[in-house]
Amino acid sequence: MRLSSTSIHAGQPIAAEFAAGDANGFAANRNPQLAWSEVPEGTRSFALLCVDPDVPTVPDTVGRHDCSVPRDQPRADFVHWAMADIPASVHAIAAGSCSEGFTVKGKTAPAGPAGARQGLNDFTGWFAGNPDMAGQYLGYDGPYPPFNDERVHRYFFRVFALDVAQLDLPTPFTAADVHRAMHGHVLAEATLHGTYTLNPALA
Q1: Is the dihedral angle over the CA atoms 199, 200, 202, 203 positive or is it negative?
Q2: Secondary structure tally for the chain: helices H, strands E
Q3: Phosphoprotein: present as a keyword of the record (predicted)?
Q4: Cα separations in angstroms, 80 against 42, 85, 93, 124, 156
Q5: In whole angstroms, what is the distance from residue 34 CA to residue 21 CA?
Q6: CB of 154 within 8 A of CB of 129?
Q7: What is the pTM of this model?
Q8: pLDDT digits 0-9 by tens, 128-179
Q9: Cα separation of 113 and 63, whole Å?
């Protein structure tokens, strides 16, 4: 299976229109265009995940003007998108069709292919302690790395072809729930990644 995009070129910087944040604050936050081909026989649905594996693990170093987030600081995953039960007939998602703009406290009913279900992304946990921002962040919310991070962040879009039409998932669900539910049901996987940074020294 192959994953391609007119919005993202493999290994290259992602345009700010597909990010949740830019140098001025919240950005256009449009989902990128994605298309998948060479789908295996027996595919009954798809799942889609977008994960940044370069998120700092020491929150006190994030967003500070008096220090930077060291490049060698241990990193963790941050989920930007989790979608399941994408019908087998769907082989592409148009740019901006699932997200247009950043919604404070999260999108309550994000758009997506008919029949698909959108899960929580990790902005849910990130903003949990902020009463002005806390909420359930469903669907796609794009890159917004710390401006003081010495590392360029990578964003991996992964599409999975599954042999089941629906996954057994809670409401709401997370990327971890998707991973558990699709275990033993993956026929093929395709990945595409782009990069993003708000550090002027790295841009």
Answers
A1: positive
A2: 2, 10
A3: no
A4: 28, 17, 16, 10, 10
A5: 20
A6: no
A7: 0.97
A8: 999 999 999 999 999 999 999 999 999 999 999 999 999 999 999 999 999 9
A9: 36
Tokens at 26, concatenated: 């919240």
> Which of 48, 50, 90, 67 minimizes the C-alpha distance to 150?
67
Beta carbons of 8 and 50 less than 8 angstroms apart: no
Residue 2 pairs in a beta bridge with 37
Q: Where are the beta strands (DSSP E) in 88-169?
A: 92-93, 117-118, 153-162
CB of 16 within 8 A of CB of 82? no
Residue position matching structure tokens 């597909």:
18
Q: Which residues of the chain have pLDDT under 70?
A: none
Q: How far apart are CA 33 and CA 56, in angstroms?
A: 27
Own/partner long-range contacts of 52-59 (Cβ < 8 Å, ≥24 apart): 52/77, 52/78, 52/80, 52/143, 52/145, 52/153, 52/154, 52/155, 52/156, 53/77, 53/78, 53/154, 53/156, 54/145, 54/149, 54/151, 54/152, 54/153, 54/154, 55/145, 55/153, 56/146, 56/149
In sign, the C-alpha dihedral spanning 3, 4, 7, 11 is: positive
The rounded distance, in Å, linking the Cα atoms of 19 and 96 is: 11
